[in-house]
Write a structure and sequence with these properties.
It comes from Pelagomonas calceolata. With about 475 residues, this protein is mostly helical. The protein is built from 22 helices and 2 strands. It has a domain of about 110 residues: Cytochrome p450-Terp, domain 2 (Orthogonal Bundle), CATH 1.10.230.10. About 60% of the residues lie in helices and about 0% in strands. Helix 10 packs across helix 11. The structure holds N-hydroxyamidocarboxymethyldethia coenzyme *A.
Length: about 475
């Protein structure tokens, strides 16, 4: 009832973006809900192709072809949509709307941060789950979280100097032996049934990522001393206990973190890589390993580590010189970075042209929970000066902060200071969105991804003949 009332209040634009699939029963399990939705979505897509298959969605310029395909509309992605000015909408809902509508650990919406289980349900189904549905999903994820012995042995054998993202990716790759899809495919399953084993893999991977990530953390920074989770809690808090973090404040931060990093439409490198690998009918384990390896790049997910590194370097330099970190010294350090031919991590975006709402909600979290934190004040001062510096520099299309600019300082506040590990947390979260879409790729029977590439010679000839 509550859900229906809130849905009725959704803004017009949101209704325009929303899927045509009706709300299913509030008592249904996740699999039951999806089972009802699949034929409807298949029909919707079939109709879309029949009605509009030959319509033109956009053109491709030479700049776009050479420049990483920015703005080229050539991928179907159901779980979220990004607007350059407004930012992300998850299944039609903005971040503040998700915070208002999605169940929390304690109970109804509004009582703290939404849980990752809730955003997983929303991304998979397009529906706002009830608290009971979320609790059922939490239990299901815990049941699926066991790691095979060879995966834990492999993780424990890795050098502690190996980057945590490499360890994380290897850990998931080792779990691929558990893939239901790979087994079903080799047993000759009919293509109309692909979604069933994909569903199992998607939930299994999401469930296993938390213990893999925790193991990497404990191996790298705590001599391999492993800690038990607490399955009386939710996915986030259980993960926090396995990491060795035990405070309600950090639990809430982890919920916020895992929700807002989950999805950012399909063209970003980690989502796109997952989608591309998955489109070959490689199973969700292999597909998401591809996504993780894309996330590990400094222009993408690794930027959250780079931001903390940049702030530490800045502080070290001015502490050593006996100078205060303020607008003037930050500006000076920013120019040193730019003049050295490096990027300012945490600023700029391939699509966004305004401050990232994922940055804004983390800033609000900081104002609420750590307003006097020294590092937060530095981040806030950077926010004041950096758009001006980057505008003066004149290169970047978007001088405003992105999600990675703020996440590290919040983690640091709670004593989670091993910043080389931060991208692993991003990787735990991004699975929720990228794999929800892999599920729909299989359920809708989307084909192998294979865009056309061109040579420089071809482009020259083509343009000269025009
Ligand atoms: N600092 C310095 N220069 C920047 C810049 C920044 N933060 N952002 C963009 N530029 C430069 C680009 O390097 C490019 O320079 P060249 O012409 O010399 O190649 C120029 O400005 C134009 O780039 P753009 O069109 O504004 O941006 P792109 O779409 O090419 O790239 C990036 C988007 C996010 C990769 C870019 O803004 C960047 O490198 N930012 C810093 C790294 C970062 O924060 N990455 C995380 C992004 C969010 C994310 O994916 N999180 O996971």
């Amino acid at each position: 009832m509550l859900v229906r009332t809130l849905r009725a209040a959704r803004p017009t634009q949101l209704l325009r973006c929303a899927s045509a699939v009706p709300q299913t029963s509030p008592d249904a399990t996740l699999k039951e809900t999806l089972t009802v939705q699949i034929p409807q979505k298949q029909e919707e897509l079939k109709q879309l192709k029949a009605d509009h298959g030959s319509k033109v969605l956009g053109e491709v310029t030479v700049d776009q072809c050479i420049g990483g395909g920015r703005g080229v509309r050539c991928m179907l992605w159901e779980t979220s949509l990004l607007d350059a000015a407004e930012g992300i909408r998850f299944r039609g809902y903005t971040i503040p709307e998700c915070q208002e509508l999605l169940p929390t650990f304690k109970g109804p919406a509004g009582d703290g941060e939404p849980t990752p289980e809730a955003i997983l349900w929303l991304l998979l189904t397009g529906e706002i789950p009830t608290k009971e549905q979320c609790d059922g999903l939490t239990a299901e994820l815990f049941e699926r979280s066991a790691l095979p012995a060879h995966a834990t042995q492999l993780l424990d054998s890795l050098p502690k100097t190996m980057h945590p993202m490499t360890q994380f990716s290897l850990g998931l790759q080792a779990c691929q032996t558990e893939s239901n899809f790979a087994k079903a495919y080799s047993d000759g399953v009919h293509k109309t049934k692909y979604w069933e084993s994909t569903y199992e893999d998607v939930l299994d991977v999401i469930a296993k990522l938390a213990p893999i990530a925790a193991r990497v953390y404990r191996n790298t920074y705590f001599n391999g001393e492993q800690l038990k989770g607490d399955t009386s809690l939710d996915y986030s808090a259980n993960f926090c206990r396995m990491l060795g973090m035990d405070s309600p404040g950090f639990d809430e931060l982890m919920r916020l973190y895992l929700v807002i990093h989950s999805d950012h439409e399909g063209g970003n490198a980690s989502a796109h890589a997952t989608h591309l690998v998955g489109s070959t009918l490689s199973d969700p384990y292999n597909a998401y390993v591809g996504g993780l390896n894309a996330l590990a790049g400094p222009l993408h997910g690794l930027a959250n580590q780079e931001v903390l590194g940049w702030i530490q370097d800045l502080k070290a330099k001015f502490d050593a010189e006996g100078r205060e970190v303020n607008e003037k010294t930050i500006t000076e350090f920013a120019w040193e970075t730019l003049n050295a031919g490096k990027v300012i991590p945490g600023f700029g975006h391939a699509v966004l042209r305004k401050t990232d709402p994922r940055y804004t909600c983390q800033r609000e979290f900081a104002f609420k929970h750590l307003p006097d934190d020294e590092l937060f004040k530095v981040v806030d001062t950077i926010y004041k000066v950096m758009p001006g510096v980057l505008t003066e520099h004149g290169k970047t299309a978007n001088p405003y902060p992105n999600v990675d600019s703020h996440s590290g300082v919040l983690l640091w506040h709670y004593g989670f200071t091993q910043y080389e590990y931060y991208t692993v947390l991003f990787g735990v979260s991004r699975a929720i969105g990228a794999l929800s879409q892999v599920f729909w790729d299989r359920a809708l029977g989307l084909p192998l991804e294979r865009p056309k590439s061109l040579t420089t010679g071809f482009i020259k000839d083509f343009c000269e003949k025009q």
